[in-house]
């Protein structure tokens, strides 16, 4: 398979949050590895000059090139990290250097998609890229974003939000979730899942919003448990029991429970329910299927059982979850 290079540009400036800058390259590099280098992401760090940039953590980073060097290049993804400063009372304010805002505005005009990490959303907003759009940022500056930019519909709850080709992420660590979502958008959720497993983290869907997602399947150390997990996924609509799984694995009921506890840190029943909730969550986000149909397809049997599982695991109802996180087709 030939490699398709996608140029990802991360904007650098003094005081930028370190993880905002260093997190995404790690995620994109794993995408290349997980697809045998078929995913050709080239990640570069761009600044006004090639002089070292001092991050908020005090670590200095050397830019790969200048903004002017990008003039002749086709940019696929522009990632805009953030920076904050605090006053004497410890109040946090986002940094929006007019020179950086100007550069972002110019680059965005010839970029396929633009994404902000954490308080980088304030830079996008200052550049006029969020007007008329729904956006998120770190919860501590969401009120200021809304006050400073009344044309932006600010929602501080989601992990990240996509509005067409403009993406905004929440907290600093959400740069990993956002990068996974961008990979899923390019290469599909299966690739993003493999990358997430290497990162040992939750998988956030490219539709993005859910802070309720159940944990990513833990990486198992035995073929037996891996086979059992795939068996559960293939037969999730069936009334799976411990006895069924034990028979499939050619082991006893007690041994099955012990293996699940050791390998996955949970019981077979709890694991099955988490998979069913995740399947139902996905259907609520992406389809118009009735609750009855979803309950049946996901193995809950009845809507009441589905509702109880959602309340127990997500502290919400399926109807409320769909209302908040239903994704309209792009």
Structural features, described:
There is one protein chain. The protein is of the alpha/beta class and 330 residues long. Helix content is 44%, strand content 16%. It is built from 13 helices and 13 strands. A seven-stranded mixed beta sheet has the order 5-2-1-6-9-13-12, sandwiched between helices. Strands 3-4 form a two-stranded antiparallel ribbon. Strands 7-8 form a two-stranded antiparallel ribbon. The two termini are 28 Å apart.
Number of strands: 13
Query: What share of the residues lie within helices?
Result: 40-55%
Question: Stretches where pLDDT falls below 50 for ≥5 residues?
Answer: 202-221
What count of helical segments does DSSP give? 13
Cα gyration radius (Å) = 22 Å
Q: What would you call the structural class?
A: alpha/beta
Please give the alpha-carbon distance between the first and last residues: 28 Å
The ordered string of helix (H) and strand (E) elements is EHEEEEEEEHEHEHEEEHHHHHHHHH
Into which percentage range does the β-strand content fall? 15-25%
Main β-sheet, spatial strand arrangement: 5-2-1-6-9-13-12
Shape category: elongated
Mean pLDDT: 86
Major β-sheet annotation = 7 strands, mixed
């Amino acid at each position: 398979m030939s490699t398709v290079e996608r140029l990802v540009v991360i904007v650098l400036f003094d005081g930028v949050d370190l993880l905002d800058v260093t997190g995404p390259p790690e995620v994109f590099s794993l995408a290349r590895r997980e697809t045998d280098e078929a995913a050709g992401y080239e990640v570069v760090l761009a600044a006004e000059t090639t002089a070292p940039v001092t991050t908020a953590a005090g670590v200095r980073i050397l830019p790969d090139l200048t903004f002017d060097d990008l003039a002749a290049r086709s940019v696929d993804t522009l990632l805009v990290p953030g920076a904050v400063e605090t006053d004497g009372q410890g109040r946090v304010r986002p940094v929006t250097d007019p020179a950086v805002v100007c550069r972002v505005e110019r680059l965005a005009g010839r970029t396929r998609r633009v994404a902000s990490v954490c308080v980088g959303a304030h830079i996008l907003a200052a550049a006029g890229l969020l007007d008329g759009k729904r956006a998120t940022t770190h919860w501590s500056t969401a009120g200021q974003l809304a006050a400073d930019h009344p044309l932006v519909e600010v929602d501080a709850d989601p992990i990240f939000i996509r509005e067409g080709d403009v993406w905004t992420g929440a907290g600093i660590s959400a740069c990993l979730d956002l990068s996974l979502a961008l990979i899923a958008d390019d290469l599909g959720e299966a690739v993003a899942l493999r990358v997430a497993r290497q990162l040992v983290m939750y998988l956030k869907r490219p539709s993005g919003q859910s802070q309720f997602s159940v944990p990513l399947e833990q990486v198992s150390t035995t073929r037996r448990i891996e086979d059992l997990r795939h068996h559960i996924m293939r037969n999730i609509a069936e009334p799976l029991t411990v006895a069924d799984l034990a028979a499939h694995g050619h082991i006893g009921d007690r041994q099955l429970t012990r293996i699940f506890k050791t390998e996955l840190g949970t019981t077979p029943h709890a694991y099955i329910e988490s998979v069913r909730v995740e399947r139902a969550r996905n259907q609520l986000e992406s389809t118009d299927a009735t609750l009855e149909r979803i309950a049946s397809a996901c193995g809950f049997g009845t809507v009441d059982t589905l509702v109880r599982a959602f309340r127990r695991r997500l502290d919400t109802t399926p109807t409320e979850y769909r209302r908040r996180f239903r994704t309209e087709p792009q």
